[in-house]
Structures are given as structure tokens and as C-alpha cells.
């Protein structure tokens, strides 16, 4: 009886009480920032940082408007998610989904132009959409 109860408790903990820890390493962040700079012509400088449960994506761009800045920010977010999913064994991004990474981390994106116009987006963990705003 005790053994059965113990196994039941272990099974419950495994199924419901242990969420996988997702690690975003410094090497992955640096690599993805470099790929962003290489892959997107408008990107002058890209950076990824992480603090506790928040990921920050920063891009300095030249010559693109608000909508293009949003698009670049979304692509950058998916680029990071794709890389982390391939190393951590979690679901990656697709056309309508940013990936499981952002179920564990909130996301803050800043795409700044050299003209001092900013486009920024927020996505709280477990929410599906990025909410975009701009400062001109």
C-alpha cells in the first residue's frame, strides 16, 4: 500500500509539479544577435539580454518605417526562439506562434532608428501577441 501511494505521489509530481527549466545561454544570445546583424540589411546592431524571467531584444536600424521595425522585431524574436527550441527540445516558432520559449519568459523588444524614432513591443509570458507602440 505504501509503495503504491509513493508511486502515485511521484507520478503526480512528475506530471503536474515539475515544469521544465528553459535556459537561454550567453553563447546563444550572442550568436543570435550576430545572425540578426548578418541576416537583416537594415539592422546595424542587435543585442539579446536576459534578466530573470524577461528577455530583451534590442536592434539599431537605419532607413525603415514603423511597420518594418515591427516585422524585424518579430523575426528577431522568432530567430531566438528557434535557436533555443533546437537546443532545449521545446516547440519552436511558426507563422502564428512565437514558440514555447515565450511561455517561460516575457519579451521586450526595442527597435530604434538612427533618427531617434523607436518602435517597441511587449509580450507577457503565456500571452500570444506582441503589443506594439512607437515613440517619434
Explain the overall architecture:
This protein has helices at residues 2-17, 26-39, 66-88, 101-104; strands spanning 43-51, 54-61, 106-113, 118-123, 131-135. It is globular. It has 136 residues and is an alpha+beta fold.
Task: State the secondary-structure class.
Answer: alpha+beta
Largest β sheet strand count, sense and barrel closure: 5 strands, mixed
Low-confidence stretches: 5-18
Q: Could you tell me how far the N terminus lies from the C terminus, measured between alpha carbons in angstroms?
A: 68 Å
How helix-rich are the residues, as a percent range? 40-55%
Order of helices and strands: HHEEHHEEE
DSSP E strands, number: 5
**Tally of contiguous helical segments:** 4
Strand content: 25-35%
Radius of gyration: 18 Å
What's the average pLDDT? 87
What strand line-up does the widest sheet have?
Answer: 1-2-3-4-5
Global geometry: globular
